[in-house]
Amino acid sequence: MMALSNPRVASVLLTLFVGLNLLTLFLGWSEYLQYQRYAIGHGEIWRVITGHLVHISAMHFLINLFGLLILWQLASHWMGNADSLKIFLISMLLISLGLYFVYPEIQWYRGLSGALHAFWAAAAILGLERRRPLAIVLLALLLIKLAWEVVIGPVPMSRELSGGDILIQSHWLGAISGLLIAAGFMILKLFKIKNVI
Predict the structure, then answer these.
(1) H or E stretch including 35?
(2) Residue 65, number of CB atoms within 10 A of its CB
(3) Radius of gyration for the alpha carbons in the chain, expressed in angstroms and rounded
(4) pLDDT tens, position by position, 65-113
(5) Is the dihedral of CA 128, 183, 120, 197 positive or negative?
(6) What is the distance, to the nearest Å, from the Cα of residue 42 to the centroid of all Cα atoms in its chain?
(7) Nearest alpha carbon to residue 91 among 62, 120, 129
């Protein structure tokens, strides 16, 4: 069995992510996996995770894939595969719960951007804790982006490129989730508790 810390794991997961999106976009199946409030309320629980893995359009997918590759390249010096995967999975669950309970008016959602913001926030905080100078830049850029979205709206051309409205609520829920997850990691480390999550 391949260990999660094995470098090949990242390649396998990335290949699965790309393959899933090519398949769902080509066959038009994304709506069957998207976060959909009504369907989740009627037992289709898998959507709390799969909604983050499918996209509105090929360009939407490519934008998120590009963001994932950039963040991973920047933070991989202090973020391992296991912690990164935990951050993504836990944040997907937290973002979906946030959408469901805090924003009941949001009926559907697709895309990795919320989870990317969670990874961005968690990587910045954990990088600061590990004294990585680049983490300061990551945190500053994240704060500037979130402030821009609140004051001005989505980043220019993002709506046109992705093919749909930008759900900045998912970005905020993601950033908050990332902060909570990073805090949880640091608390576990403080008490020398390993492999709880």
Answers:
(1) strand 35-36
(2) 17
(3) 16
(4) 999 999 998 998 899 888 999 999 999 999 999 999 999 999 999 999 9
(5) positive
(6) 25
(7) 120
What does the pLDDT look like over 167-195, one tens digit per residue?
999 999 999 999 999 999 999 988 887 66
Cα angle 188, 101, 85 (rounded to 5 degrees) comes to 40
Identify the bridge partners of residue 109 per DSSP, sorted by sequence position: 35
Angle between helix 134-151 and 58-75 (nearest 10)? 150
Task: Give the distance from CA 55 to its chain's centroid.
Answer: 13
Taking CA atoms, 108 is separated from 60, 85, 159, in Å, by 16, 24, 16
Task: Name the nearest CA neighbour of 118 among 75, 162, 88.
Answer: 88
Token digits of residue 90: 């836990």
Both structure tokens of 22: 């090519």
**Contact present, 128 and 136 (Cβ < 8 Å):** yes
- Token representation of residue 6: 């094995």
Q: Which residue has the tokens 């790309």?
A: 18
